[in-house]
Specification:
Chain B: Keywords: Cell membrane, Membrane, Transmembrane, Transmembrane helix, Transport. Chain A is 42% helix and 22% strand. Chain A is of the alpha/beta class. The relative contact order of chain B is 0.10. Classes of the chains: A alpha/beta (289), B mainly alpha (329).
Chain lengths: 289, 329
């Protein structure tokens, strides 16, 4: 009975989440009415134009921002402060530059898993570095490894906290296309192995379709909210090369593109902009006349 | 065919590689020498044309002569001290032989301090003042950097006291030390404490300000990492804040030590702490024909020691700081 109830209540639930930021001209409503229910082990992508409040949603789930209205519930507990059960992978790796890759992960392990013996800590750090294929550079400082490697260590650090939800804020945004593809494959592997619940912010349509179980598409701000939710029913494990010719994959892809560039278009094309200007000018001239 | 082509390329590369290197080496070694030689020439030229009531202004030759004299005086004084202790030992041994119950006493040598002992006193005093200031300024700077309210509260006081000259503090410090530091068997002389406190008062500020700026400009992502990990206040400071702001703290420390060394000379003159400042003052009061040259020796020594102190701080910064790419000069 209780088990049944557990299954019915979602793992992570955002209810009527909204946030106002104070400005000198009064409060600015960045987000409004964000409702989302996420199952355990689900991989969710948040996609939308820049400035639409994707990061704000993530930061509210992380507890780094406090929602003005509504709230977030994780496993029947309200989220109101940051914590290791909602580990964040930041866009710019944010490793401590004075600590080696190993020490960076170790800091997270020591802090979140007190009570482990020295040996257990060491094994757990090494296990997580192994998971992201970074064991060979464990003793390197962040400045001595490439951007992709830093991001791998950042992911290892987040995973080492054994989070209930893994939050990734444009984790591959600063990387080149090849490195990004490698890391996406790694993330898919890890997700298949550990089954973490993941919320990832991305700008990349292919990345979103390839990795996600559902893509959450956000409308433009201010007062941004969830526009559409697209479930991706592609079988796992997914292979980027095989999917490239898959009609279903391409359909999903075009759905997201349509949302971003037709329904929520942000930038008008140059010719339209010019036409508008000419029109404005004409109306002004007629006004004068 | 390939070899024939390769050889000229290598020679070309070697030539291209070596030429600027020799030029750089020459520049690095020769230009400072040129600068010094030109300076010495101008100095001796000008010195010949300046007549003071204590005779002609000393040129490089006179200053060098006084440098050797000061070294000789130091050696002579050390000799005297050695002989003084030797005589005491012989005398004590003789008395003990006569009367075995006699407890031998060793009295300290009380000759005037030499130039090199005065340098040592100055270094010791400035380091004490500097360390005391740092122990206050770094924690206070961290508090100011972490809390905007603390900074807003303290900032007016920093701005008010930062520009105050050491000479203005000195009479107050002297009187306070005389009133507060009362002991029948003082461990430190009052002049030492007065000088060190004055140095500390003046070299608090750069470290305080730079630490506060360094702490308040820590990468926001790192602060978020700390929040996600739920680090407590102490480990937040030790694992995130302190290492992040080490470069800024060192910038402040180097500025502070430079100011402290400048302030010390003035403080010693007025407080009569037996260091370089007192040396300069005594020579000035002495007014012999050699005084100006001896003061000039002190001036150059002060400059050289200031330079060495800064280099030592730089070496420590390189050791301690994680930011090996930072431009350190």
């Amino acid at each position: 009975m209780k088990d049944n109830q557990m299954k019915n209540t979602p793992h992570l639930e955002l209810t009527q989440v909204g946030i106002d930021f104070p400005t000198p001209k009064g409060p600015f409503t960045a987000l409004q009415n964000v409702n989302l229910k996420i199952k355990k082990g689900e991989f969710i992508s948040l996609i939308g134009h820049s400035g639409c409040g994707k990061s704000t949603v993530l930061n509210i789930v992380a507890g780094l921002y406090q929602a003005t209205t509504g709230g977030v519930i994780l496993d029947s507990k309200e989220v109101n402060e940051p914590g290791p059960e909602r580990a964040v992978v930041f866009q710019n790796h944010s490793l401590l530059p004075w600590l080696s890759a190993y020490k960076n992960v170790e800091l997270a392990v020591k802090q979140t898993q007190k009570g482990r013996s020295k040996k257990e800590i060491k094994e757990w750090v090494e296990h997580n570095l192994e998971l992201v294929h970074m064991s060979h550079a464990a003793d390197k400082l962040p400045a001595e490894i490439s951007g992709g490697m830093k991001q791998r260590v950042g992911i290892a650090r987040a995973l080492a906290m054994e989070p209930k939800v893994l939050l990734m804020d444009e984790p591959f945004g600063a990387l080149d296309a090849l490195t990004r593809a490698h890391l996406q494959d790694s993330v898919m592997e890890i997700h298949a192995e550990l089954g973490n619940t993941v919320i990832m912010i991305t700008h990349d349509v292919d990345e979103a379709v390839l990795l996600s179980d559902r893509i959450v598409m956000m409308t433009n701000g201010p007062e941004a909210t969830i526009g559409e939710i697209l479930p991706i029913e592609l079988e796992r494990p997914r292979n980027r090369i095989a999917l490239a010719d898959d009609p279903k994959y391409n359909h999903y892809r075009s759905e997201v593109l349509k949302f971003l560039y037709e329904k929520q278009r942000k930038v008008e094309s140059v010719s339209e902009h010019k036409a508008k200007k000419v029109q404005d000018k004409n109306t002004k001239e007629t006004d004068v006349a | 065919m390939i070899k024939q082509n390769a050889i000229p390329t290598i020679i070309h590369q070697v030539k291209g590689f070596q030429w600027p290197n020799i030029g750089q080496l020459l520049g690095a070694a020769a230009l400072p020498i040129v600068g010094i030689v030109v300076f010495l020439g101008l100095w001796s030229l000008m010195a010949k044309n300046i007549d003071t009531s204590l005779g002609q202004f000393p040129g490089p030759a006179a200053v060098w002569e006084q440098t050797t004299t000061l070294v000789d005086e130091h050696n002579a004084q050390m000799d005297k001290a050695d002989k003084f202790y030797e005589r005491q030992e012989i005398r004590n041994a003789a008395r003990v032989a006569k009367d075995p119950s006699y407890q031998p006493k060793i009295r300290a040598f009380t000759g005037a301090p030499t130039f090199f002992q005065q340098i040592w006193t100055s270094l010791y005093t400035v380091m004490v003042g500097f360390i005391v200031a740092s122990l206050i300024a770094i924690p206070l700077g961290i508090v100011c950097g972490l809390s905007k309210n603390a900074y807003t509260a303290i900032n007016p006081l920093i701005q008010l006291f930062k520009p105050v000259s050491p000479l203005a503090w000195l009479p107050l410090v002297t009187m306070v030390v005389s009133a507060v530091y009362v002991s029948s068997d003082p461990m430190f002389s009052k002049s030492f404490i007065t000088s060190a406190v004055t140095v500390a008062l003046c070299c608090l500020w750069p470290t305080l300000i730079n630490t506060a700026v360094g702490v308040s400009s820590i990468d926001k992502d790192l602060l978020n990492v700390s929040k996600v990990l739920r680090l407590n206040a102490l480990s937040h400071v030790t694992t995130i804040v302190l290492p992040s702001s080490i470069p800024a703290i060192f910038t402040g420390l180097r500025l502070s030590l430079g100011i402290g060394w400048m302030v010390l000379i003035a403080a010693e003159m007025l407080a009569q702490n037996p260091g370089l400042g007192k040396f300069v003052w005594d020579e000035f009061q002495n007014g012999s024909s050699e005084s100006l040259a001896r003061i000039m020796v002190a001036v150059l020594t002060i400059g050289l020691i200031g330079f060495i102190l800064d280099r030592v701080m730089l070496v420590i910064q390189r050791k301690v700081s994680w930011d090996k790419n930072a431009v350190l000069r």
